[in-house]
Amino acid sequence: MTDTGITPKLFNSVAQAGHFAGGAAIVLAIVVLWRATYAPFAGFSIVLLASAIKEFWFDYKYESTEVRGSSLEDFLMYLAGAGAAMIVSLVRAVL
């Protein structure tokens, strides 16, 4: 436990929820603003590229090791959120 009372497990869980929500928010924002049939795919592609750069280059270079955690886990949570938003957007477009 850290001096703030936040355990590393709780810190990681909140961080992963944030990565998931961030990926989903980017896709949904692009879908709402773009309104094209391919917008969910474009949004997912943007999340894929941006999160790969952020997690495997920027965080590795600039984030402290105490809070960095697993870059692969963070990257996959971005993609999970983006994928969920993409599925919701595509189902919504069909209905």
Describe the structure.
The chain is mainly alpha-helical. It has four helices and no strands. α1 (8-34) runs parallel beside α4 (71-94). The longest helix has 27 residues, at 8-34.
In short:
This protein is mainly α and 95 residues long. Helix content is 83%, strand content 0%.
Keywords:
4 helices, 0% strand, 95 residues, elongated
> How helical, in percent, are the residues?
over 70%
- Approximate strand percentage: under 5%
DSSP summary, beta strand count: 0
Number of domains: 1
List unreliable stretches of 5+ residues.
none
What is the 3D shape?
A: elongated
Mean pLDDT, as a whole number?
92
The helix/strand series, from N terminus to C terminus, equals: HHHH
Rg from alpha-carbon coordinates = 15 Å
**How far is it from the N-terminal to the C-terminal residue, by CA?**
48 Å
Largest sheet: none
Total DSSP helices: 4
* Backbone structural class: mainly alpha
Task: Give the SSE layout.
Elements: H1 8-34, H2 39-62, H3 65-68, H4 71-94
Helix pairs in contact: 1-2, 1-4, 2-4
